[in-house]
Structures are given as structure tokens and as C-alpha cells.
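task queued by scheduler; priority normal; single chain, no ligands, no partner chains; default sampling; output format set to C-alpha cells
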Amino acid sequence: MTKKVRNAFQYINRRLHWIAIFMLVFFTLFPLYWGITSSFKSYTAIYQVPPQLFPVNPLLRAYRYVFNFRGFYRFLFNSTFLAVTSSFLAVSLSVLAAYGFSRFKFKFSSIFFMMFLIPRIIPRASLIIPLFELWSGLGFLNSYVSLIVSYTATAIPLNTMVLTGFFGTIPTALEESAAIDGASMRQRIWHIILPLSKPAIITVSVMSLREAWNEFPFVLTLTTETAMRTLPYQLFMMRDAMGIEDWPVVLAFATVTIVPILVFYLIFQRTVTSGLIEGAIKE
């Protein structure tokens, strides 16, 4: 009887496991599916009861409106430029910081490393007023400089943590052999550390790019000119721009905003996963 009860519990646990996974996937993907399919509906069809799970007569009206929206390509350029530039700077600086933490041990190095990560756990909303005062006093409001520096500074701590863990798994004997052959520190980083750390580099690059692409509080606070808006900022302003709640247009704009970074992430999904796992393990 005990064995039968145990088998019954194991059977139920397996089924509950798959039910939990199904519910998690459903609640994660269904809003995305609903948003994308609704962007192809007409203005009236989106309010239809019962709702259409798939548009009966798909329309491109919302996407034509988005791509012809005044300033759209400027917003797209701003998002791309800020994301790529800040990600490049954040990854470059994080490589140097992580190399120092993983290779040079000094007094209180562990405490300093923890202090280096503290800015990451500070809520971003609490940084808005100090950053506004700082950049306003320096005269850099409505400029790419304030946004790039702010984006870069917030991405460096997490990138450094991941890269430090990954660099710690690379045997120091490789660098010691290269140093004996006359390789400088720059050459050792460029020809040994970076090639062996490709998964980790791609991981932090994707994370930095995603965070910069989706960033909203800083651009909302540090910019007032329309020409400096990014796609997430303009998505927030869509209702005021149209004057009415044209949900197919709003959802089309949201789709155009999230699809590039979603595709980019899916392309490097396996590399990001392995980079995070290996970066979390220190030998």
C-alpha cells in the first residue's frame, strides 16, 4: 500500500510539474501573441465580443501608420545609437575591471568588489533626481552624452560580476606562458582572455544592449526635446500623440519596439545561457 501511495504521489508530482510549466509558458507568451495579433486587427475588431484569437481580416493599417509616423526613424536611430554605443563602452570597461578583479588580489579586494556591485541593487528611480541635478548643472540635458554615460554606468556592475566569474575559470598558466614569451598585459587580454571568453562577452553584450534598448526612466528625465526620444519613450507618448486610444496602432508600435531586441536575444540564446552559467562558477 505504501508503495502504491508513493507511486501515486510521484505520478501527481510529475503532472503538476508539467502543469506549472505550461501555465508559466502560457502566461508569458500569450500577452505577446495577443499584442502582435491585435496589431493586425481593425480599430473596431479589437473591441469585439467574444474576442478574435486570430484576426479574420488581417490589416497593415497600424504598421503603415507607425512607419509613416512623424519622427519614427529618428526615434529608431536614437534607440539604436544609444544602445550600441553604451553597450560597447560598458562591455569594454567591464572587461578591464573584471580582469583586474580576477587576476590581481589585494587587501580588501573582496570588499571593494562588493562595493563595486552596490550601485546595481539601488533602485533606478532613486537615481533620477541626483542624475538630473548632475547633468543639469553640467549643461548636458537633451544630449547623447548624459544618456550614454548613465546607461554605461548602470550596466558595468552586472557585466563585471559575470565576466569576473568567467575570467576566474581561465587557467593563469596560459597567461604566464605568454608573459614568458614577452607578451604584454594588453596582448594577453586581447589574444588569450577575450577569445576564450567569447560566450561571456556575448552574454554581457546582449544584456547591456537589451537594458539600454528598453531603458525608460533616464530618457524620460534627462530629455525634453522630441528629437531626443527613443522608441520606448515614444510608445509611452503614443496616446497623447494620437488623441484617441487606437490600440492596434499602439500595439503595432510596441511590436516594432520589442521585436528587434527579441530576435537578437533568440539568436544568441544558447550562448547567453552558457555564459551566465559559466560566469556564475568560480574555481
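post-processing summary
- The mean pLDDT is 85.
- The domain at 70-279 is CATH 1.10.3720.10 (MetI-like fold).
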